[in-house]
Amino acid sequence: MHLWRLSLFLVLGLALGAACLAVNRDLTSSLEGRSAWKLLGCYIDNVSGRALPHGEAVPGGTNAMTNELCIETCLQAGFSIAGTEYAGECWCGNAVVDGGGLAPDGSVGCNMKCKGNHAETCGGPNRLDVYQLVSPTSPTPSQTITSSSTQPASTSSPVQPTASAGTGKRGLAYSTGNPEGDAIFANFFTSFKKITWAYDWGYPAHGLDPSFEFVPMLWGLPSGPDPSWTAAVQTPGTKYILGFNEPDLTYSGSSNIIPAKAAAGYQEYIEPFSGSAKVGMPNVLWNNVGSSSGGDYDTAVWTQYFVGNCTSCHFDFMGIHYYQDCDPADGQSGAAWFQGNVTNAYETYKLPVWITEFQCYGTDAQQVAFLQEVLPWLDSQSYVQRYAYFGAFPDFLMNANGTGLSEIGVAYATT
Fold this sequence. Notes:
The chain is of the alpha/beta class and 415 residues long. The protein has 2 domains: 14-145, no CATH class; 170-414, Glycosidases (TIM Barrel, Alpha-Beta Barrel), CATH 3.20.20. The chain is built from 10 helices and 15 strands. It has helices at 14-35, 67-76, 141-145, 184-187, 227-233, 259-269, 299-309, 334-349, 364-380, 407-414; strands at residues 37-44, 54-56, 81-85, 89-93, 113-114, 117-121, 127-133, 170-174, 195-199, 213-214, 240-241, 278-285, 317-325, 353-361, 384-392. An 8-stranded parallel beta sheet has the order 10-9-8-15-14-13-12-11, with helices on one face. A 5-stranded antiparallel beta sheet has the order 1-7-3-4-2, with helices on both faces. It has a two-stranded antiparallel ribbon with strand order 5-6. Helix 6 packs across helix 7 (299-309) and helix 8 runs parallel beside helix 9. The chain is elongated and about 70 Å long.
């Protein structure tokens, strides 16, 4: 499944920029009087290297974003610099790094009203409103800004960022559908340490940041031997191979292969590499109870026929998809449906489970609530090896313009 669109972004003019600066100056006065934070100015940010490297979720989520909330969140996480961007993002650090500096056009680019308080501005596109904690022992702003340190500040009782219980599980299904045809959407997530791996429904990685582990996928049946596939799976560091994408379904975004042909394709193109990398079963829509590409039977039966035909195949893990309403019509919990589906997949084959695509259909708020419930559960299940929410591209984990994380993306990256 590949669904995304690009929209045009309207840049506000100089008059709005001046007004925004005035509003934030008023805010700065109140902040300085209350908590010794100082507005440093409007700074440049880059998706390839974040000026403030730690993205944080504020209480109430993206729609509650204000500069005060971001500042308090960064302070509680042990950081001395806070920055707001795109009206709803909060970034923290102890230095502005990776080339970030004062914007050459002053405050013009910091023109987006905070989602939680339209009387304030919270940065703009690739622009951060940056605040610094000031105390008698703090370095001057110029000393701090040129530092390369990104470790949390030391306090008398610091609150340090902690690693997720599921470190290594959370990943990205990313699209290269942008003008450059690269992994820019996935690379927006490099600062979020809970996300450690990614795939793009194929190979190669198209410029994926090396901080992520890339996992190649053979999306469907090739027409014959493909040297580039061999090169991809034999690339040093390749530990896992993802098999066919939804061969059980007949949609345009599915590979649509009957079980016997899928088994023959596995034996020819994937099984030869099972000695050097761990191999996953085909990525199937496990909650599909309708017909499949094989005929008038569901995905569970399709998988049974596939396994029965692939007698010489070796599988190290299952690959499944899940799509369903966030709040099913009968009033049951969408999270409970999802958990039951994943558990059923494991109990059927007793293999570690990768959920390579999953999404609940609903509003942004419903999807955020769904993620906040299921992500801790996924991280706590020993048999769930990896998972990736759909997907790293505009209107899903990215905002409509593809210029930053959506509210759902922030929840996925930080929960």
